[in-house]
Write a structure and sequence with these properties.
alpha/beta; six-stranded mixed beta sheet; 6 strands; globular
């Protein structure tokens, strides 16, 4: 395959009960010019076995098997392998709508944006999450010409959750950006602040 349009990065750690649904949703994307980089971060359940089965079914799936180093370490391993024009992050216990990456790619290309953030829904609906989360994930369209600190700290719709951020890989490489592997809670916010 020539350079993929999107590198989908999926850190995996002991998610055997959710992983097939996640992978099926990624493989069902309407945008097919992608590579799917799954990093098994030392799982002790059947996650690696599931990844290998899916890898046999679809050549776009790459599996990196490494010792457990935590979420930032797994995401960095995937970033090191990524070759797509854009990078999308998915958590292995989530699933995505079939047109998600198509819409993100088209939005980035038509607007010339290096970063696009999409909305999300809480699932399962019960137990009900705290209201701030619904507000933070609520999709609404905004275009920002330049970075303002308020985007990270004052706008609810841009609350950093890396699994809904779509980034031009050129930005990540140009600025030599990686996740800080010493941060184990809030690494999303720290990385998005760098972006």
């Amino acid at each position: 395959m020539s350079q993929p349009l999107v590198s989908v990065l999926i850190p995996v750690y002991n998610v055997e009960n959710y992983l097939p649904v996640c992978l099926d949703s990624v493989l069902a994307q309407t945008l097919t010019e992608m590579e799917i980089i799954c990093v098994n971060d030392g799982s002790t359940d059947k996650s690696l076995e599931i990844l290998r089965e899916y890898q046999k079914k679809d050549a776009r799936i790459q599996v990196i098997d490494k010792e457990n180093g935590g979420l930032p370490s797994a995401r960095n391993a995937a970033l090191d392998r990524a070759s797509g024009q854009y990078v999308g992050f998915i958590d292995s216990d989530d699933y995505i709508e079939a047109e998600m990456f198509q819409k993100l790619y088209e939005t980035a290309e038509s607007s010339g944006s290096e970063i696009v953030i999409c909305g999300a829904e809480v699932f399962p609906e019960e137990p009900h999450a705290e209201n701030w989360l619904y507000e933070a994930l609520s999709p609404s369209y905004h275009y920002y010409e330049k970075f303002e600190p308020e985007l990270l700290f004052g706008k609810k719709g841009t609350t950093p959750f890396l699994w809904r951020v779509f980034v031009k890989r050129e930005l990540i490489e140009r600025e030599h950006l990686r996740l800080d592997e010493t941060i184990h809670l809030g690494e999303d916010k720290a990385f998005q602040a760098k972006l």
